[in-house]
Design goal:
The complex is a heterodimer of chains A (539) and B (465). Chain A is built from 19 helices and 6 strands. Chain A is mostly helical and 539 residues long. Chain A has 2 domains: 487 residues, no CATH class; 45 residues, no CATH class. In chain A, the strands form 2 sheets. Chain A has a 4-stranded antiparallel beta sheet with strand order 2-1-3-4, with no helix packed on it. A two-stranded parallel ribbon of chain A has the order 5-6. The longest helix of chain A has 30 residues. The radius of gyration of chain A is 25 Å and the shape is globular. In chain B, 71% of the residues lie in helices and 4% in strands. Chain B folds into 2 domains: 122 residues, no CATH class; 232 residues, no CATH class. The two termini of chain B are 32 Å apart. With 465 residues, chain B is mainly alpha-helical. Chain B has a 3-stranded antiparallel beta sheet with strand order 3-4-5. In chain B, strands 1-2 form a two-stranded antiparallel sheet. The chains are: A mainly alpha (539), B mainly alpha (465).
């Protein structure tokens, strides 16, 4: 059973049982139905000629459906609550509001663009398109989550899907281990959200995004940072060339957006911690390192993890400045700007302006999607913004550098209809990016902190001049370089392995004692010991 | 006809007949259908009411006198019978795609009947004898023909047998307490004997060593069945004690003891699972951890705790069945269940590896999977009383999660160029797929199993209030 209310965060003034137009779930239902149809057709009618038409139809309809959210915003929709109510005070709930809408729109646009532009790539597998739609549906479920438990359910679904997809496509022991470690790191972030929820329950109320306790915000932020690889800075995937343009881009960007959406729900009032400056410094380090590596990467796909890390660090920084709207700006640009560049595989001189449009979105200038990026909502000094400006500039320079590469294929060699559809697919992302600067959410039509934007843009211009003259002669940084090894946290894993080995020996001693020939006697001895401890406590 | 005859004697007799048959398919079919009918009967038939089917009238009476003792299965017990026999159906169906089906279906049915009798017998001290009989019947089930009985099997026999005298003695002393309630010395002695009896029965640390040993040396599906059946019945038996004796229920030290014992099992089970190199042993430690969680729930606010205790049962059954079935598949194809010997199996046994990992993650409390709602509720319940307790409980769950990560790492360590193929049979694939779907559905909609246990608290007249 579904419940529908137009008054989230307060006592429901009216509670209407379904049926009613479920605008929140509409894009998700469309995507899931399309994905299922694609899967079924693949098995039932392998010679079906129009899977691409079906996929693009579903994706475009879903994108349009996200616009329908604006008909009734904010509004929420809940599944039947978990029962019995004495044990569970939870029902999976999704909220369409100014926070979730830009993310949902970006993700739906990305899915449409991935399928739209797949015509120029050799990605004709309907299962891959179905996977993109399925992942996007999960991503929208995550970004629209109304409470932490709904969010962690969506996160877990994305994590398991990513684990499955990565293990399917990864070769070799070491890389597979990286996939599992990445999964474990993300689940640890999820565990932190569970912990925050338990703290809130301990205080008498399960946590809700509409009322996050002051002590909980910092944990939620660290949880998102942990999932994104920022706190601590780590890069579990060594190489990014396994899943290339289409599905790989969706997987990376949706997973990141799902984690970033949590930042958008943390109000400035919930970030009252002495840890803020430390976290800002760590985020700045991550941003600078990732932005530098992004710029130096040999191509945009190799640099993709650094793009995600760099943009996510900027979003975390905005959140640490008590500016959740700013974090949304960076988050949607991570998806739209990244998608635009990563899907730009077939190149031609006359469409080079398309990926460069994302520079506008990244500029933080007034009326851009990131206009609010450097505003501050708490008492943290503006000086903490300074280290992030070069990072922003390096990311912008990286976009220019990678956009100017020759690319995988040439668009000129493609068929005529492809030449028409492909740029339109790319423009979809650019158009949404421009739209978000002026309409539809809290961060639209904003002026922002103009001086910071101008400094960053001048820096970007300077870096670009350097990149196109000096840096072009430098060899691209290897993903196995010393810095990468350090930031991949191999040293942490080695230390943990040593600690594990130590405890393993202790566990081995206990196990062999209890299971050995004298195990029965050891058990009785331990029992006597425990009983004596109990009786001492009782006295 | 009486209810004890229908749910105790009839399955016991059928188990005897099944053990004489040779054809595994026939045995499986008969056992599954019969157990399913018993489940439906427990779910649908009323007790002590005249029913007319066609021209034939009959009444199921709730008690049966035998050798001067009574076996009582009242209307409140029917939901418990449905749960036990329903779970047995799941185990028998899962076993049908393994080589252990013949022994598990016949002996398993007899064990279930005996353990139901243990819950039904009055005076209750005879339950210890019935449990001991079930333990003895488990020996041929766990014994591998052609091999010497392993250390785990012998220790299982020793520890479960040691429980019997303690419970018998406690029953004798409790009769004395009924006559003379003011005798504090007697109360204390009885409490200690009960505690010791359940320490052996529930494999409480440090008497848990038979579990990992047994999971290492016997067929996973049969061990899984034993590890599900015995602790479940022992926990219900223990709750029956608490429900029956108010002095025990209200004892001031009870809360501390239950918390300490529960935490000890959760933490030791979880942490030791993290260091295991044998897949079977990890399952064994997960069972220890789950028993610990059940004990912790008893300590939570009375009716909430009981509800939580019951909420754990169905996800646990499902997880153990999927886990044991997956292990059984590996056992038939891998030199051993050591992590070194199962490297890269995800490419050749994708269903079994997924089943094992998902079951492991579910019992660790991973969101989206069957174990999460109940574990989340337990953690929440513990958080309201003490953060330190919930931290320790989370440490245990993290240990089990870590073991899942290690297992995943081993499964995925395939050499470059290894092809993806499925070596499971179609039946195994189908059963495991059903298991996956159920794991996810129970993780998302725990309320769907609510009707299965809403009536269960009624079997405890005091704890259920």
């Amino acid at each position: 059973m579904l419940y529908f209310t137009c008054n989230p965060g307060k006592e429901a003034t009216f509670l209407i049982q379904y049926p009613r137009i479920m605008v929140i779930l509409l894009p998700i239902i469309v995507m899931l139905l399309t994905a299922v149809t694609l899967f079924v057709m693949r098995f039932v009618r392998p010679n079906f000629k129009y899977p691409w038409m079906l996929a693009i139809g579903g994706a475009t309809l879903a994108l349009i459906a996200v616009f329908f959210w604006h008909l009734h915003m904010p509004q929420s929709i809940s599944l039947a609550p978990w029962q019995p109510a004495t044990l569970f005070s939870f029902s999976p709930t999704w909220l369409a509001d100014g926070t979730s809408w830009p993310y949902a729109l970006s993700l739906a646009a990305l899915a449409a663009a991935v399928i739209w532009t797949s015509i120029v790539r050799e990605e004709n597998d309907p299962a891959a398109w179905a996977g993109v739609l399925l992942l996007t549906a999960l991503g929208i479920l995550a970004v629209a989550a109304e409470n932490p438990l709904t969010l962690i359910l969506a996160w877990s679904a994305i994590d398991l899907a990513e684990l499955l997809a990565m293990l399917r496509s990864t070769e070799g022991e070491e890389r597979s281990r990286g996939v599992v470690i990445a999964f474990a790191a993300r689940v640890t972030g999820t565990l932190l959200v569970i912990w925050v929820n338990l703290i809130s329950i301990g205080h008498g109320n399960p946590i809700d995004f509409t009322a996050i306790p002051a002590s909980a915000g910092i944990y939620l932020l660290i949880a998102a940072g942990l999932r994104l690889g920022i706190f601590p800075l780590h890069l579990p995937y060594r190489k990014e060339n396994v899943l290339r343009r289409g599905f790989g881009t969706s997987l990376r960007l949706i997973s990141a957006a799902a984690s970033l959406s949590l930042l958008a729900r943390i109000p400035a009032s919930a970030l009252q911690s002495s840890l803020l400056p430390v976290l800002l410094i760590l985020a700045a380090l991550a941003a600078l390192y990732a932005a530098w590596m992004w710029l130096r990467a040999s191509d945009e796909i190799i640099g993709r993890p650094f793009w995600v890390l760099g943009m996510a660090s900027l979003a975390v920084a905005a959140s640490l400045h008590g500016n959740p709207t700013g974090s949304i700006g960076w988050g949607v640009m991570l998806v739209l700007g990244g998608g635009l560049l990563f899907l730009f595989s077939a190149r031609q001189r006359n469409i080079i302006w398309l990926p460069l449009l994302s520079l506008w979105g990244l500029s933080a200038l007034p009326f851009s999607a990131t206009a609010t990026a450097w505003e501050a909502g708490n008492h943290v000094s503006w000086l903490y913004i300074v280290p992030f400006l070069p990072a922003q500039a390096l990311l912008m320079t990286g976009v220019i550098r990678h956009a100017l590469h020759p690319g995988e294929t040439s668009l000129e060699s493609q068929e005529r209809w492809t030449k028409f559809l492909y740029p339109n697919g790319l423009f979809l992302l650019a158009g949404i990016m421009l739209l978000l600067g002026i309409w539809g959410w809290n961060g639209a039509q904003r002026i922002g902190l103009v001086w910071a934007a101008i400094v960053a843009d001048f820096l970007a211009a300077g870096f670009t001049a350097l990149a196109l003259t000096v840096m072009i002669r430098l060899a691209p940084l290897s993903t196995t370089s010393q810095w990468t090894r350090i930031f991949r946290l191999d040293w942490v894993y080695n230390t943990l392995a040593a600690v594990y080995e130590f405890f393993y020996r202790i566990a081995e001693i206990i196990t062999s004692s209890l299971e050995g020939e004298g195990g029965l006697l050891w058990s009785l001895l331990l029992l006597a010991l425990l009983l004596s401890i109990f009786s001492t406590q009782a006295h | 006809m009486s209810a004890p005859f229908l749910w105790i004697f009839l399955p016991f007799i059928l188990a005897g007949i099944l053990s004489l048959l040779r054809n595994q398919k026939v045995i499986t079919l008969i056992a599954c259908i019969f157990t399913l009918l018993l489940t439906l009967a427990a779910w649908l038939l009323p007790l002590d009411t005249v029913m007319t089917i066609g021209g034939w009238s009959f009444k199921l009476t709730s008690s049966l006198n035998i050798l001067g003792r009574r076996l009582v299965l009242g209307p409140a017990d029917l939901s418990l019978l449905a749960l036990i026999y329903g779970s047995a159906v799941v185990w028998f169906v899962a076993a049908s795609v393994t080589k252990s089906a013949r022994r598990l279906n016949s002996l398993g049915l007899a064990i279930v009947a005996l353990l139901v009798a243990a819950l039904a017998v009055e005076p209750f001290l005879y339950a210890a004898l019935l449990i001991e009989m079930a333990v003895l019947l488990s020996v041929p089930l766990l014994f591998t023909p052609g091999k010497y009985p392993g250390k785990g099997l012998i220790r299982f026999l020793i520890f479960q047998t040691l429980a019997m005298p303690f419970i018998l003695f406690s029953g004798w002393l409790l009769a004395g307490i009924d006559a003379n309630p003011g005798n504090l010395g007697l109360v204390q002695q009885a409490a200690i004997l009960i505690a010791l009896g359940f320490t052996f029965l529930l494999a409480i640390f440090p008497f848990h060593s038979w579990i990992p040993l047994l999971t290492e040396e016997s067929s996973p599906i049969t061990v899984g069945f034993i590890l599900w059946m015995f602790p479940t019945v022992a926990l219900f038996f223990g709750l029956g004690f608490l429900d029956h004796y108010s002095w025990l229920r209200d004892a001031p030290a009870l809360n501390n003891i239950l918390t300490t014992v529960g935490l000890l099992m959760v933490v030791s089970g979880g942490i030791l699972a993290a260091f295991q190199k044998h897949l079977g042993r990890i399952m064994g430690y997960a069972v220890i951890m789950e028993t610990g969680f059940s004990i912790l729930t008893i300590n939570l606010a009375k009716s909430v705790g009981l509800n939580l205790f019951l909420t754990l049962l169905i996800p646990r059954t499902l997880c153990l069945v999927v886990w044991a079935l997956s292990l059984n598949i590996f056992k038939g194809h891998s030199p051993s269940l050591l992590l070194n010997d199962i490297k890269g199996l995800v490419r050749t046994f994708p269903f079994a590896t997924s089943g094992l990992v998902l079951a492991n993650l579910a019992l660790a409390g991973m969101p989206l999977l069957a174990g999460f709602p109940s574990h989340q509720a337990i953690w929440g319940g513990l958080a309201t009383s003490s953060y330190s307790i919930v931290i320790w409980a989370l440490v245990g769950s993290l240990g089990l999660f870590f073991s899942a990560v290690r297992v995943m790492t081993a499964f995925s360590a395939a050499p470059e160029g290894a092809h993806w193929e499925s070596h499971e049979t179609v039946a195994q694939r189908v059963l495991l797929s059903i298991g996956f779907i159920a794991l996810f559905l129970l993780g998302l909609f725990p309320q769907w199993v609510l009707p299965l246990w809403t009536k269960l608290p009624a079997i405890f007249s005091h704890l259920g209030q």
